[in-house]
């Protein structure tokens, strides 16, 4: 609710800093017993200097030396710019509190951040207007861009201490940025206590207790050698505990002239060692440290004002706390000597004393700091207070506008506790559930939802909670569980909420292959097809259309789905809602003219990127990857989209949407001849559908598995998989098209000599498909040609297929048809004509990096007697999905900064990947790149 807790230093390389930050000041620092740990730190810093960024998490118990390692890193980071922040337990509910502290020194560089990201970041940190479009992920992208801008000036060290107490919004932004830098001169160093799983992509440095030799070295000069040995034996090797206990001994005990106390601190050693220091504080100083523990800004002035309000001599109280080394003061900045002291102060205080501290802070809050005043009042209040509940709800709205969904959820939960009105409390808790889900905290959303559902909550609140839980389960948990929750919500919801619930329910039923359920959902949705609200009409048309397609009535389905798209496009409110995009994208394959909808999806995809709706982006990228591959034949774009979807899904914890992207990647890797990677991605996809609960209806995986088998030279295995799929769902294609497996199954049966079955299936496919579309007409003609026993008739059919391919955008399928035609021509003795078709196919496959297909075409060419020819060489080192995406955008003319903004990367990361593309392809300029991909 506030900005940085203390005035930041200027952002300068380390040797030019002049203090103000205890983590980033001082000279070279060596730590006792930590030589190996400091070597890890040095490697991190050396990598950053050389443009190899890194993320290192220092993990260990309280007092083991995490902060000391961070201080040593700062001292060793000569020539680095440094930004630092520290998690504070009392600020864990304040959105972007730590991020504001971390990025404060970089605020002058905000103009170098892409405008949408800069506006979202400024809104979140209180640097600009709050009412700007975008979600929490756009703040994370802005964090990445701001850090990248700083790293252009000097290598950058990002230090965050006590990560376990950093507010969720700040932690998510920092981790997002740390995982997406490649080529930037950035080192990210985080410290936290053990407990949670390590962040994805991070190296972990676990600090253990010191060994006996290091204990002796640590205490040398403080106590006699034998005393040091006995302290180590009795206390272990926690450095801070050893120093605290040694400091509490008498002179005779330290020298070994007197025996050690019979009972040294027991239990949690560090806690027991520090408690006497707090107990020795005079009353005024005890109040001062309690106020500091409750405050959220780390300012001496804040504590002094509250002390004065209590009638206490503020200077005397603060001096006493500082003299006893409980707090450290630098100008107006005030903090505890060690975070454990804050925890001890707060945990040992009586509830009444805590409430008094919050009340004093509320009464003395600075003018204009209404959020802090409201929050402290809320924490000081024990009984119902309707006015305060209303203020907290308003506070939640303000922090939500600054992308502080987690803090908004906490404020609403507290507001619910302060109202006597049970209905109002349920509504507030329902809103808290929604904000927790938006903030990415699925566990908290579920916990709050249980409270609403256990209470006598009104139907609207229960419907909202069930809807939110259904979406959470759909994205991160069990799809069958999501169906149950959404069905329950559908029985309670009305109006727009009902329309969204039914649309989400239909989407889940689609994923589960629940055709009967979709028909029931469509009957309920049909009541809104003539609703005056355009959004409800669009959603109802979408549900009705999807149900029709799944029951085998594609004509009716197409008309409803087209109406859904047209209605959504005509309504400004619908155009601005990113939640519609996954639904509309899924429908594209069934539209009367799918290609006409592609520009709409592309435009909306750019809009989703602009507002940083990464959760929606994962689902849409997975769908567009399949659309690019199976509608457009844009396999470079499909490879890139699927790779980006998998990467983002891993960072966000989304399960269901990652599986189809992994499936598509498996196909693309197989086509490139990278069979081990194809198998690995296919296995990951299978594991995810099992985890999501859709394994029983995941027959769509069979199509990819069959394609992979064919690329491995196993037509029998491919046929078996396709036959199994046909038995399960009739053989729908990758986009749900009727009998869409036919082109691949006809090809495998023909390769196995099962000509009669291939011919029958080719005719079935012609009747079931939409030959009015050129792409489909081409595949129908190709299937008939493959199954035709007469060479002359087959030639006519192949030529018909190629003519239809010429009217469709899919160059891969055209090359595939040329390959099959060339094989048929060679077998019939028409070698010259065969070479023409096979040469065109081989060149097209090579241009698309399709190593398997290019190799197969070259093999057929060799069989015609053609042994050598000038051709595009296949690359020895293939591009990654991200390199492919960056190459495609660069070939279209986008600058590095524009590519970085679109893909939520840093310009240096784009430069790094683009350099890799040039190296792998032997290119020197974007002109050559555009020619290669154009």
What is this structure, in a nutshell?
With 934 residues, the protein is mainly alpha-helical. It is 65% helix and 4% strand. The strands form two sheets. Strands 2-3-4-1-5 form a five-stranded parallel beta sheet, with helices on both faces. Strands 6-7 form a two-stranded antiparallel ribbon.
Overall geometry comes to: globular
**What is the level-2 CATH architecture name of the domain at 14-206?**
3-Layer(aba) Sandwich
CATH level 4 superfamily of the domain at 14-206:
P-loop containing nucleotide triphosphate hydrolases
Q: How big a fraction of the residues is strand?
A: under 5%
Q: How would a textbook summarize the main sheet?
A: 5 strands, parallel
- The mean pLDDT is 87
Number of strands: 7
Distance between the termini: 50 Å
Sequence-ordered SSE layout with sheet pairings:
Elements: H1 35-49, E1 54-59, H2 66-76, E2 81-86, H3 97-103, H4 115-125, H5 136-151, E3 156-161, H6 168-179, E4 186-192, E5 203-206, H7 212-219, H8 225-235, H9 239-248, H10 251-255, H11 269-279, H12 283-294, H13 300-309, H14 314-323, E6 327-330, E7 333-336, H15 339-348, H16 351-363, H17 370-380, H18 386-401, H19 405-418, H20 422-438, H21 442-454, H22 459-476, H23 479-490, H24 495-512, H25 515-525, H26 534-550, H27 554-570, H28 572-575, H29 580-587, H30 594-611, H31 614-632, H32 635-652, H33 658-671, H34 675-692, H35 700-711, H36 715-729, H37 742-751, H38 755-768, H39 774-787, H40 791-805, H41 811-827, H42 831-847, H43 851-863, H44 881-891, H45 896-903, H46 907-921, H47 926-933
Parallel strand pairs: 1-4, 1-5, 2-3, 3-4
Antiparallel strand pairs: 6-7
Helix pairs in contact: 1-2, 3-6, 4-5, 5-6, 7-8, 8-9, 9-11, 11-15, 12-13, 12-14, 12-15, 12-16, 13-14, 13-16, 16-17, 17-18, 18-19, 19-20, 20-21, 20-22, 21-22, 22-23, 22-24, 23-24, 24-25, 24-26, 25-26, 26-27, 29-31, 30-31, 31-32, 31-33, 32-33, 32-44, 33-34, 33-35, 34-35, 35-36, 36-37, 37-38, ...
């Amino acid at each position: 609710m506030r900005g940085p807790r203390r005035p930041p230093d200027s952002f300068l390389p380390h040797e030019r800093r002049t203090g103000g930050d205890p983590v980033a000041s001082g000279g070279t620092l060596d730590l006792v017993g930590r030589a190996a740990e400091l070597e890890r730190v040095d490697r991190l810093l050396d990598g950053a200097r050389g443009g190899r960024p890194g993320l290192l998490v220092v993990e260990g118990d309280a007092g083991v030396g995490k902060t000391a390692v961070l201080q040593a890193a700062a001292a060793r980071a000569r020539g680095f710019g440094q930004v630092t922040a520290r998690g504070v337990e009392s600020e864990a509910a304040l959105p972007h509190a730590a991020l504001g502290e971390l990025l404060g020194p970089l605020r002058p560089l905000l103009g170098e951040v892409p405008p949408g990201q800069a506006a979202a970041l400024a809104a979140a940190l209180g640097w600009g207007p709050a009412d700007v479009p975008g979600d929490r992920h756009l703040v994370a992208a802005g964090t990445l861009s701001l850090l990248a801008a700083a790293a252009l000036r000097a290598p950058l060290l990002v230090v965050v201490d006590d990560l376990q107490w950093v507010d969720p919004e700040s932690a998510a932004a920092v981790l997002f940025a740390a995982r997406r830098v490649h080529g930037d001169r950035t080192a990210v160093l985080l410290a936290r206590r053990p407990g949670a799983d390590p962040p994805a992509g991070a190296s972990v440095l676990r600090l253990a207790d010191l060994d006996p030799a290091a204990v002796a070295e640590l205490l040398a000069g403080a106590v006699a050698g034998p005393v040091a040995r006995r302290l180590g034996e009795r206390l272990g090797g926690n450095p801070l505990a050893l120093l605290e206990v040694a400091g509490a001994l008498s002179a005779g005990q330290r020298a070994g002239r007197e025996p050690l106390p019979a009972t040294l601190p027991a239990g949690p050693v560090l806690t027991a060692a520090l408690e006497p220091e707090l107990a020795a504080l005079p009353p005024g100083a005890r109040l001062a440290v309690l106020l500091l523990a409750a405050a959220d800004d780390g300012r001496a002035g804040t504590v002094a004002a509250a002390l004065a309000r209590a009638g206490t001599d503020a200077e005397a109280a603060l001096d006493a706390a500082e003299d006893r080394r409980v707090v450290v003061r630098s100008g107006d900045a005030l903090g505890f000597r060690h975070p454990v002291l804050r925890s001890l102060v707060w945990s040992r205080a009586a509830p009444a004393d805590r409430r008094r501290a919050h009340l004093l802070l509320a009464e003395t809050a600075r003018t204009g700091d209404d959020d802090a005043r409201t929050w402290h009042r809320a924490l000081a209040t024990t009984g119902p207070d309707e006015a305060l509940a209303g203020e907290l709800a308003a506070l939640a709205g303000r922090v939500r506008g600054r992308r502080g969904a987690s803090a908004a959820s906490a404020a609403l939960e507290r507001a619910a506790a302060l109202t006597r009105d049970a209905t109002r409390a349920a509504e507030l808790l329902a809103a808290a559930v929604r904000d927790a889900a938006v903030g990415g905290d699925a566990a908290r959303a579920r916990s709050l939802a249980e409270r609403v559902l256990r209470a006598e909550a009104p139907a609207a609140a229960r419907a909202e909670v069930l809807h939110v839980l259904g979406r959470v389960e759909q994205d991160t948990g069990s799809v069958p569980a999501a169906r149950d929750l959404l069905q329950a919500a559908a029985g309670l919801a009305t109006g727009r909420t009902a329309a969204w619930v039914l649309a989400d329910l239909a989407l889940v039923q689609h994923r589960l292959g629940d055709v009967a359920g979709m028909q029931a959902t469509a009957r309920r949705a049909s009541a809104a097809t003539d609703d005056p609200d355009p959004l409800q009409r669009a959603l109802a048309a979408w549900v009705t259309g999807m149900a029709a397609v799944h029951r085998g009535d594609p004509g009716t389905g197409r008309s409803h789905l087209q109406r859904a798209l047209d209605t959504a496009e005509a309504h400004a409110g619908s155009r601005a809602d990113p939640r519609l995009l996954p639904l509309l994208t899924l429908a594209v394959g069934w539209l009367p003219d799918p290609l006409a909808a592609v520009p709409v999806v592309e435009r909306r995809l750019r809009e989703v990127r602009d507002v940083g709706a990464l959760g929606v982006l994962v689902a849409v990228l997975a769908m567009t990857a399949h659309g690019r591959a199976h509608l457009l034949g844009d396999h470079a774009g499909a490879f890139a989209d699927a790779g980006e979807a998998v990467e983002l899904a891993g960072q966000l914890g989304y399960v269901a949407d990652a599986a189809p992207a992994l499936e598509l990647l498996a196909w693309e890797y197989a086509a490139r001849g990278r069979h081990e990677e194809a198998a690995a991605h296919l296995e990951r996809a299978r594991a995810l559908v099992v985890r999501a609960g859709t394994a029983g209806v995941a027959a769509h995986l069979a199509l990819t598995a069959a394609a992979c088998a064919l690329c491995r030279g196993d037509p029998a295995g491919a046929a078996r998989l396709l036959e199994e799929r046909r038995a399960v769902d009739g053989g729908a294609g990758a986009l749900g098209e009727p009998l869409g497996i036919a082109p691949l199954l006809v090809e495998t049966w023909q390769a196995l000599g099962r000509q009669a079955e291939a011919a029958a299936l080719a005719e079935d496919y012609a009747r079931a498909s939409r030959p009015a579309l050129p792409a489909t007409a081409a595949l129908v003609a190709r299937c008939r040609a493959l199954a035709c026993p007469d060479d002359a008739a087959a030639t006519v059919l192949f030529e018909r297929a190629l003519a239809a391919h010429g009217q469709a955008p899919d160059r891969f399928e055209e090359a595939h048809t040329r390959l099959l035609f060339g094989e048929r021509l060679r077998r019939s003795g028409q070698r010259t004509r065969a070479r023409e078709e096979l040469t065109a196919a081989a060149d097209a496959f090579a241009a698309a990096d399709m190593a398997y297909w290019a190799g197969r075409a070259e093999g057929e060419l060799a069989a015609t007697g053609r042994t050598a020819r000038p051709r595009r060489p296949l690359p020895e080192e293939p591009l990654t999905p991200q390199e492919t995406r960056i190459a495609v955008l660069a070939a279209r003319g986008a600058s590095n900064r524009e590519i970085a903004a679109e893909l939520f990367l840093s310009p240096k990361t784009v430069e790094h990947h683009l350099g890799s593309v040039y190296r792998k392809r032997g290119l020197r300029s974007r002109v050559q790149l555009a020619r290669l991909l154009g």
